[in-house]
User: Fold Threonine synthase from Paracoccus sediminis.
Amino acid sequence: MRYVSTRGKAPVLNFEGAMLSGLARDGGLYLPETIPTLSGLNDLDGLPYDEVAFRVIRPFTGDSFSDAELRGAIDRAYARIEHAAKAPLRQLAPGHHLLELFHGPTLAFKDFAMQLIAQLFEIALKRSGRRITIVGATSGDTGSAAIEAFKGIDNVDVFIMFPHGRVSEVQRRQMTTPTAENVHALSVTGHFDDCQARLKDLFNDHAFRDAVGLAGVNSINWARIVAQIVYYVTACASLGMRPTDFTVPTGNFGDIFAGSVARAMGLPIRRLIVATNQNDILHRALTTGEYRMGTVEPSISPSMDIQVSSNFERALYLAYGGDAPAVSQLMDELRGGGFAISQGALQALREQYLSGRVSEEETLAMIRTIRAETGEILCPHSAVGVAVARRHIEPGVPMVTLATAHPAKFPDAVEAAIGLRPALPPHMARLFDLPERVTRVENDVEALKSLILDRRTQ
Ligand SMILES: Cc1ncc(COP(=O)(O)O)c(C=O)c1O
Ligand SMILES: N[C@@H](CCOP(=O)(O)O)C(=O)O
Assistant:
């Protein structure tokens, strides 16, 4: 399996190379040259999650990992997800199901991919003896999942940038309370897009990149996307492999893009619906054909307060028929504030994705409604998804909404909706008693570089 960059000017790599690179050297994102077909779809129902994960991920990894290495990594990763089904489906209403992705150690869907890639990084680094520096940008959940998954792993230093004052207190404490010396939480002035832009600046400085062995674990990393395909497969298997719709709370477009790869592998996914909060650039782009940046308004679903949606580049690459120069041109225009999608590409995108936007009031109302109707307490991101899904349910077609985080990660929003604060699970009971370790950093790439050079293990 060979991986190519969306911008067409980076070396073609195998799975391990693409995984350890994160962002391609030309600034683009890696994609496989072809998407493999998943055989035996009708034999998957009832199989353990780990077995389905092996069958889904194996075709992407090529000769990078032996079967035994991949199975071992999967077993160790998913042993940490505290639900027998790992990603259980819960019926909210006839025909509407919630795919619960928050039973991992940091209570968000990110654990599914992060736990696995930490295992794969460890195997690859042990084999090569290389040392790397992971830098990540987070609006709260990627960072906590990365710190949890990579803390204490040999040959890796981890630096996570989060926007100062714009993550929930639980998310911040998940990043600032671990004591492992190889992890560093950085509170950056600005918003998530600033963190993500600085991350790309670091990758695009090749001298720095090579000096520190820079690697990325955001969903710019193809290995993240691969691991996120698996739960679409288990959901379809549980629903009898019949045409099914999915609604996905969306920010960086990684989770929904994994759904489109699942469909390309042969899954009977009928519609993929992008659900955004008031930061609705993706909904506007799919509706109008114009991808134009405005200002980010902090919301009660902060993990989706994003304007530069990194994986949209992968979707554009496919919609433009693999025309890397066209994608590079759009990304240049994005630096000036936005771009217009060609008619042909817009039509191709609309064949792949529908979309909807949910206001703050609608999000709160949906948390209340679902609590009253079913007893389930949604996190605000999942509530955005459920609200959009309910506009699109059609008789006879199951709708699955991805529940991307546990409500206890966002107690203020939940309390504003239903007047109670959901309890953290027992393994996080001491979170508010632990001392925090965090460094304040300006939104400045040179300041970040010197901090990383200074703190990383030599
Ligand atoms: C809880 C939660 N829901 C939804 C999203 C959006 O997912 P994606 O960035 O893959 O679109 C995120 C952040 O990524 C998140 O943390
Ligand atoms: N919502 C995310 C933003 C980063 O997303 P990623 O999937 O690209 O890592 C977060 O919680 O950090």
About this structure: The chain has 18 helices and 15 strands. The domain at 89-104+222-418 is CATH 3.40.50.1100 (Rossmann fold). Residues 108, 141, 219, 249-255, 303-304, 381, 404-405 surround pyridoxal-5'-phosphate (ligand 1) (CB under 6 Å).
